């Protein structure tokens, strides 16, 4: 029976189901030359965001038994999809599994920023009582601009609408979604009180100094998409100057976090790339992973 390498881990239930079906599941973490050697010995590799499947890794696997690459999550920017296909390796992901989890994290960050919860928490732990300094804003009636209106963006829109927020969206491919207003990106930047990003990895920051300058004074931005989508230094500059009232990041240009300016910015709420880190999302990802393996490799 086929060998499955879960190089970035896999839900225990999914591992057990695969093993019950007769698959061998390797949950060791391989890197460098050790990963290249192991790829030639397995039929499938399951990755999250840590393991990169570039040409070198794909070639190593294709020279052996590798038939399937599964990105257990949303997006495929850590897999060279076209190269894999050229080598006869199938590439799949689980795009719908974590939509609710990511959308709820973003919604939590919107509440956090609106009511200064990150500053309040830090200051209370330091023995400070900043009651008069921590006046916030209400979400009802505010405009949320969503850049990238796929599954996660639309899930967030539905949840934020229920709070009375007005939704604007921009997407390079989606223009017509019933109940929501499409606008060009410049208009979204200028009109939104909160902006949330849900786009793939970019060659350069989508939101930099010029884009931040277009945003409303005192507005907020949240990135739970991919690291590097927001220019981190431009963001800190805008927070320190007061141009932006606050920001939240779940992903970073370098992970684990290495940017000390981000670490010391009080107006920034940060989480360690936990958008999909709910038990329910991981269960769904595991179930879909098993389904794909059975479909492609056989039961």
Describe the structure using short key phrases:
299 residues; alpha/beta; 7-stranded parallel sheet; 5-stranded parallel sheet; 12 helices; 12 strands; elongated
Structure explained in plain terms:
By secondary structure, the protein is an alpha/beta fold. It is 38% helix and 16% strand. It has 12 helices and 12 strands. It has helices spanning 12-20, 32-39, 55-62, 81-86, 99-114, 117-125, 151-161, 185-191, 209-214, 232-241, 260-263, 279-297; strands at 3-6, 24-26, 44-47, 68-71, 90-93, 143-147, 166-170, 181-182, 194-197, 219-223, 244-249, 268-270. The protein has a 7-stranded parallel beta sheet, sandwiched between helices. A 5-stranded parallel beta sheet has the order 2-1-3-4-5. α9 links the parallel β9 and β10 (219-223). α2 (32-39) runs parallel beside α3 and α5 crosses α7 (151-161). The longest helix is centred in the C-terminal third of the chain and has 19 residues, at 279-297.
